[in-house]
Design brief:
Radius of gyration: 23 Å
CATH class of the largest domain: Alpha Beta
Number of strands: 11
Number of helices: 10
Strand order of the largest sheet: 2-3-1-5-4-9-10-11
Strand content: 15-25%
Shape: globular
Helix content: 40-55%
CATH architecture of the largest domain: 2-Layer Sandwich
Largest sheet: 8 strands, mixed
Structural class: alpha+beta
Order of helices and strands: HHHEHEEHEEEHEEHHEEEHH
CATH topology of the largest domain: Alpha-Beta Plaits
Length: 321
């Protein structure tokens, strides 16, 4: 029923766009025939007004993968560099949380490992909303920050790295075969705030998939049973994401080099000093307002990266018309 509703909405939207375009073209022809410049101008403005809706439909076209509409997990991991990189990881976590909020999506924190002095070593969040995975999947990779470090008494410029990993929530329509014999399950005490119960019982759960080495962990709940169930869901999602990645690489070996996901593959630079610039190294998209980007203004980067995946080139959404 959900798929049917989405298809009906898409068809109705295209039908309305076509009708408005046809009516406007007829008005222009009539206005030119009658020498009525006002009618021509009104119709031309109506056609220009279609651009925003067409752009939105283009993005929907790019989000046609089998899991694109699903909710998604997003992991943040600080790179080498201690406090500076851990602070950068917390900035990225805030950036994606703000992006999700701006798009009406909900965010649940699955687990957080705080840094010793500031920031975080790692964190996993669950982003719930239509096309959450489809939009965020292009953010997987290494993100670089260049700034004057607030933790350096000599006010020197530092370069920090943090990685993002995105994988979809597996819904009931997708089966992933994995049994307890395929994994190792460990329990441990959760870290951070949460009260006496959290810190004194082995409620946190870590599951390691032996064949692939994939590790997931959850400490969001006070109950070990709930954390175990959430960790199993995360593991199935990670395994499914691995399968999607293999399919994509097999289908397009040329594009695979551009879409590889992994530590050491830098996708975007955020420069706060000595100039202000955020640049995506895959698409060439730039933004001279880093604070706006860090506050969640990511759509232009995501749309261009989606177009790159679909078309295998460096076009932005505006170029593909």
């Amino acid at each position: 029923m959900r798929e049917r509703q989405q298809l009906e909405d898409a068809i109705a939207g295209i039908t309305q766009l076509t009708r408005t375009l046809d009516d406007s073209v007829e008005l222009i022809a009539m206005g030119e025939e009658e020498g009525d410049a006002a009618i021509v101008e009104e119709a031309e403005n109506a056609i220009r007004g279609l651009k925003a809706e067409i752009d939105k439909r283009q993005i929907d076209m790019l989000l046609s993968g089998e899991a694109d509409a699903n909710d998604t997990y997003l992991e943040v991991h600080a790179g080498a560099g201690g406090t500076e990189s851990q602070d950068w990881a917390s900035m990225l976590l805030r950036m994606y949380t703000r992006w999700a909020g701006q798009h009406g999506m909900k965010v649940e924190v699955m687990e957080v490992h705080d840094g010793e002095e500031a920031g975080i070593k790692s964190a996993t969040i669950l982003v719930k909303g239509h096309n959450a995975y489809g939009m965020l999947k292009t953010e997987s990779g290494v993100h670089r920050l260049v700034r004057i470090s607030p933790y350096d008494s000599n006010a020197r410029r530092h370069t920090s790295f943090a990685s993002i990993w995105v994988y979809p929530v597996v819904d009931d329509n997708i089966e992933v075969a994995v049994t307890e014999a395929d994994v190792r399950i460990d329990t441990y005490r959760a870290s951070g705030a949460g009260g006496q119960h959290v810190n004194t019982t082995d409620s946190a759960v870590r599951i390691t998939h032996i064949a692939t080495g994939i590790v997931v962990q959850c400490q969001a709940e006070r109950s070990q049973h709930k954390n175990r169930a959430a960790a199993w869901a995360m593991l199935r999602a990670r395994l499914y994401e691995e399968e999607l990645k293999k399919r994509e690489e097999a289908a397009n070996e040329t594009a695979a080099s551009k879409t590889d996901i992994g530590w050491g593959h830098q996708i975007r630079s955020y420069v706060l000093q000595p100039y202000q610039l955020v640049k995506d190294l895959r698409t060439g998209v730039e933004n001279t307002d880093p604070q706006g980007v860090l506050n969640g203004d990511l759509d232009a980067f995501m749309e261009a990266a989606l177009a790159l995946r679909v078309h295998g080139g460096g076009e932005t959404v505006e170029d593909i018309d």
